[in-house]
Amino acid sequence: MTAPELLVESPQRNRGTYREVELDLQVRKRERVAEGVVVLTLADPAGADLPEWTPGAHIDLMMTPTLIRQYSLCGDTSNSAEWKVGVLLDPASRGGSQFVHDKLHEGATVRVRGPRNHFPMVQAARYKFIAGGIGITPIYTMIAAAAATNADWQLLYGGRTRSSMAFLDVLEDHGDRVSVCPQDETGMLDLAAELSAPDEDTVVYCCGPEGLLSAVEQACTSWPTGSLHIERFAAKAFEPSVGGDSAFEVECQRSGVSVTVPPDKTIYEAVEEAGVDVLGSCMEGVCGTCECDVIEGEPDPRDSVLSEAERESGATIMICVSRSRSERLVLDL
Amino acid sequence: MRTNYPFNCWYIAAASEEIKTGLFTRRVLDQPVVMFRRGTGEVVAMEDRCLHRAYPLSKGRIEDDRIVCGYHGCTYDAGGRLVDVPSQGNVPPGARVRTYPIHEKSGFVWLWLGEPAAARLRPPPRIPWSAEEDGWGKSLEVSSVRANYLLLHEHYLDLTNVFHMYPEAAPPDIHTLPPLNEVEVSELSVSYSRQTVPTRPASWEMDVAGLAADTKLPRVEEGIFVSPALHVQRYIVGPDGEKPYVLLRVQGFTPESHGATHVFLQIQRNYAITDDSVTGYLRTMFHEMGKRDQDVLETVQQQLDQETRPHRDLNFKADRAAIRARRIAQQMVDDERFVLR
């Protein structure tokens, strides 16, 4: 998540069960790597090791209690002494990238939370990387990993102008694996051509502005399920429930029972009262005991068990705490 | 059966002291591995199988940093290259036994069986809180448990079993464990801590640390699931303002196969560092505890193996560190599987 301007807080943050690692790190180095882009090198002031991470991971920079932004790690995964993030100064900044550019000078200290990874890199024979602008940051680390393991890979890298594109010096060393496409020289990325031939041995990783992501999603519709991995700048927003929770229907398919779940009851309570045999334990969305499969509908996950990918897929639900975004949920109960 | 352990991870293959002058073999992640020390002291690891016939190289001998197979005398150098075939004048060019990255540090030999080039993408293994060199008193035991490695992680990540399995080891004033204060996570690790109200010491603590029976001491228990290969626990018993007594329980869990795990248990302490009787006491005590753990874990594994219909375990709040650890391991395994296959 390279988002300078992620407007919603990650839902994980509000879950009390697990606390994420938080560290006060020092800006060891600050380098301008392209027009409007700085790379910060962060390290523990006392030299302690930092938690391990894998390509695609991101951290939160907690600049003030209310100014918290996510940035992809773009350094070397084997270096446990320091982390690097690349930050674009967004002219429409709502504070995050402005703060980084104005205040986080060498020697400054910033609170950091994480890392976590919603964009993990799976092992594959071939990778097609597509990056737009500052979306290069997670891809940059993935390329280092692909290159180190001798995987076959290609990068299509778009940007406004050549001078605004970070890491070109290193990337261009990879020769014809890398296509650099500044918009003012070559126009828009030709995604239709790039993605015209679905290939079951290739996985596609894309990070960049929303327009690019939707276009890549469009172009990949004929690709096998699971080929495309994208990271959105602003993750799917949780609708703030202004008027509290609302009622919805739950159909328990195996039992042939349908119930209405009122705002003041959990799915677990409602189905149990209706005589459905359910298994639960902690009643806090912690232990995973009450997990069941979702056959139809869109769950509103509120547990602390599922991974981000699992939450997005909506395939299972912890019925002791989670609710529904759709008016009806069909469960395998 | 699909395995539930990741390959791209550093695992302990041996304690340094196990690899002496001869060939040493151990099955790791269901792969036969032979190890030996070169003249320079550096450890070499390779697949324990001659290229010619499926005879273990570990049954051969070492000659000048080379392994000579005990069957037909095929000879391999430390890089795994076949360098001599006694029955044939020429050596098949390019014939090579697979070798594995090794990292030896602080008494352990760590092995990488995953994608060889990916080893350098991961930081070298480290043991949190550990005195790297000889600063602390240490004892070590290597054993094997016929149970899946995740059962071991789970067992030690939820210590609420202590009062049932080891009532004699618990401090006399504590009868149930307070809930975990905090479970802290990052992408690949889980740590937890728990503090107890000041209590009198357990009898073993009086014996090894010389604590007086009537002192009431606060204690902190912390642990980290560092990776699928390692769980470290730290017990700190501290009279306020004085140097706390710290005991580390370092547990390397290395899958031998899906149903068996090598356990590398190291106990470190920051007190009575040079007192061999304390080292012996702790070794014996943790050995006895390990035996009881082993009985339970092997029974659970047998039960699982015999089940004819799938069961879903009931979990409790105390399991939350373990649940997270299982998910981290699962994610690592999933990332290694080519998703489209």
TrEMBL record, chain A:
Q: Where is the FAD-binding FR-type domain?
A: 20-122
Cofactors needed by this protein, per the record, are:
FAD
Keyword check for Flavoprotein, yes or no.
yes
Q: Name one GO molecular function term.
A: oxidoreductase activity
Task: Name the chain's protein.
Answer: Iron-sulfur oxidoreductase subunit beta
2Fe-2S ferredoxin-type domain sequence ranges: 246-333
Database matches in PANTHER family: CARNITINE MONOOXYGENASE REDUCTASE SUBUNIT (PTHR47354:SF1), NADH OXIDOREDUCTASE HCR (PTHR47354)
Taxonomy, top ranks, is:
Bacteria, Bacillati, Actinomycetota, Actinomycetes, Mycobacteriales
InterPro entries of this UniProt entry?
2Fe-2S_ferredoxin-like_sf, 2Fe-2S_ferredoxin-type, 2Fe2S_fd_BS, Beta-grasp_dom_sf, FAD-bd_FR_type, FNR_nucleotide-bd, MRET, OxRdtase_FAD/NAD-bd
Q: Which domain of life is it from?
A: Bacteria
Task: Write out the entry's keywords from A to Z.
Answer: 2Fe-2S, Flavoprotein, Iron, Iron-sulfur, Metal-binding, Oxidoreductase
TrEMBL record, chain B:
Q: Which SUPFAM superfamilies match?
A: Bet v1-like, ISP domain
Positions of the Rieske domain: 10-111
Keyword Nucleus part of the UniProt annotation? no
Q: Which Pfam families match?
A: Rieske, VanA_C
Q: Which UniProt keywords apply?
A: 2Fe-2S, Iron, Iron-sulfur, Metal-binding, Oxidoreductase
Task: Tell me the Gene3D superfamilies matching this sequence.
Answer: Naphthalene 1,2-dioxygenase Alpha Subunit, Chain A, domain 1, Rieske [2Fe-2S] iron-sulphur domain
Stored InterPro entries: ARHD_Rieske_2Fe_2S (IPR015881), Cholesterol_7-desaturase (IPR050584), Rieske_2Fe-2S (IPR017941), Rieske_2Fe-2S_sf (IPR036922), VanA_C_cat (IPR044043)
Example GO molecular function: monooxygenase activity
Question: Would the keyword Oxidoreductase be found if you checked this record's keyword annotation?
Answer: yes
PANTHER family assigned:
3-KETOSTEROID-9-ALPHA-MONOOXYGENASE, OXYGENASE COMPONENT (PTHR21266:SF60), IRON-SULFUR DOMAIN CONTAINING PROTEIN (PTHR21266)
Query: What name does UniProt use for this protein?
Result: Rieske domain-containing protein
Which species expresses this protein natively? Hoyosella subflava (strain DSM 45089 / JCM 17490 / NBRC 109087 / DQS3-9A1)
Upper taxonomic lineage: Bacteria, Bacillati, Actinomycetota, Actinomycetes, Mycobacteriales
